[in-house]
Amino acid sequence: VPRPDGKEDYLGLVVVDEPSSKQSDPHVLSLQMRYTSKQPVASSLLT
User: Fold this and answer.
1) What is the per-residue DSSP string for 2-42?
2) With a threshold of 0.70, does the pTM exceed it?
């Protein structure tokens, strides 16, 4: 399927678009984001 903007797409030829072998755990990512943003747990659950 060609790109809508008409540009060449080298996906799969030059760049491999596959999942990483090391996947992110959503819960760990949420904890890391809370820690780096320094928001309390209660306020981060409200957003």
Assistant:
1) --TT-----BTTTB-----SSPPPHHHHHHHHHHHHT--HH
2) no
- The rounded distance, in Å, linking the Cα atoms of 9 and 13 is 9
Using DSSP, state whether 45 is helix, strand or coil: helix
Residue 15 tokens read as 């760049």
Measure Cα distances from 5 to 2, 9, 20, 38, 42 in Å.
Answer: 8, 10, 28, 41, 44
| 27-43 tens-digit pLDDT | 888 888 888 887 565 55
